[in-house]
Design goal:
about 325 residues, alpha/beta, Rossmann fold, 8 strands, about 40% helix, globular, transmembrane, membrane
């Protein structure tokens, strides 16, 4: 069966093992800064806040269903995959649990994970609900230490790094053991996103002093501007790689089919998932956060809950009133 988005696969420079740390780390630090900070006048809030809204609603709906149906058991946790050096997850965890405490809900534990874990990324964290899984975590086949727990999986700006077959495997593995899967991307595969990526070069020159840069970072930002160049190149590759929500839903259908062919779906109820997607404006004029949420559906009418159930408007930008 042909997969969508069957185009030549391009590589991001900062992902390559030959990219030196003095170039790779500032690139990732800048991406994290752009995820977690508001850049006026083009943004009314930091991009990660839109993801927190979606994530909070997903967690709340799962817990409400369990409570209303008398389902008791272990506390659900969030496991982020492909966390690397942390990205926006620290900010997401803090904002999410701040909301939950304000609503008199119990904070939800959040764990970072990666095939090449970097626990030192959160060594200075004082949050009791934030942790880093020390063992390697394969997104295609999560270890028992993850899959045996009641959990929700997230991918923050990382799902586009995987090819179609790997994307299908990720979704299938989530269907086997997770309560839900949430995929967030800051860019889309369109001209508007490409234009915004080109603006990263001058933005890097403006914002770098705010990141307490080293002498090497300053040198490769201003004198020999390799860091802005890598940011723009990798950003354009990310735009090129990014799937639309409907393409992700197509991969979900293939994942569902692969589970059925393996004979696992009927035994575990894996086919009973429902999917939603939407967008939230994060940067004027073109920047939109796209999100795709799949969740295990335990309602009595599973026939209406497969990937055909696509609701774009439920948590859309129109509802929040922030479409700029």
């Amino acid at each position: 069966m042909p997969l969508p988005y069957g185009r030549p696969w391009l590589l991001e420079i900062s992902d390559q093992p030959w990219c030196p740390p003095y170039l790779r780390d500032p690139v990732r630090d800048m991406l994290t800064f752009l995820w977690t900070h508001r850049v006026p006048p083009f943004q009314h809030r930091a991009p990660y806040e839109g993801a927190v809204e979606v994530l909070n609603q997903v967690v709340d709906e799962i817990e409400t269903y369990d409570r209303d149906n008398g389902i008791r058991g272990e506390t659900m946790r969030i496991v982020d995959f492909g966390s690397g050096a942390g990205g926006p997850v620290r900010k997401v965890e803090a904002a999410l649990n701040e909301r939950r405490l304000a609503d008199n809900n119990t904070p939800v534990p959040v764990s970072l994970s990666d095939i090449h874990p970097v626990p030192s990324a959160i060594s200075d964290s004082t949050s009791p609900t934030l942790s880093y899984i020390h063992e390697p975590v394969n997104a295609f086949h999560a270890p028992k230490s993850v899959s045996s727990l009641k959990h929700l999986r997230t991918f923050f700006l990382s799902f586009h790094h995987f090819n179609n077959d790997h994307g299908r495997q990720i979704i299938a593995d989530s269907m086997r053991s997770a309560e839900a899967l949430c995929i967030f991307e800051l860019q889309e595969c369109n001209l508007g996103s490409a234009i915004m990526i080109l603006m990263l070069a001058p933005l890097t020159w403006i914002l770098t002093p705010l990141l307490r840069p080293s002498a090497k970072t300053l040198f490769f930002t201003y004198l020999i501007p390799l860091i802005p160049l890598i940011l723009v190149f990798d950003g354009l590759v990310s735009v090129y790689r990014t799937r639309t929500p409907k393409q992700i839903l197509y991969l979900a259908k293939l994942a569902n089919l692969s589970l059925a062919l393996e004979g696992e779906a009927k035994d575990n109820g894996d086919t009973d998932w429902r999917w939603e997607y939407g967008y939230k404006r994060h940067t004027w004029p073109f920047g939109r956060l796209s999100w795709v949420v799949g969740r295990r559906d335990r309602r009595d009418d599973p026939g209406a809950t497969e990937t055909e159930t696509e609701t774009e408007g439920e948590w859309s930008e129109a509802e929040t009133g922030h479409d700029m």
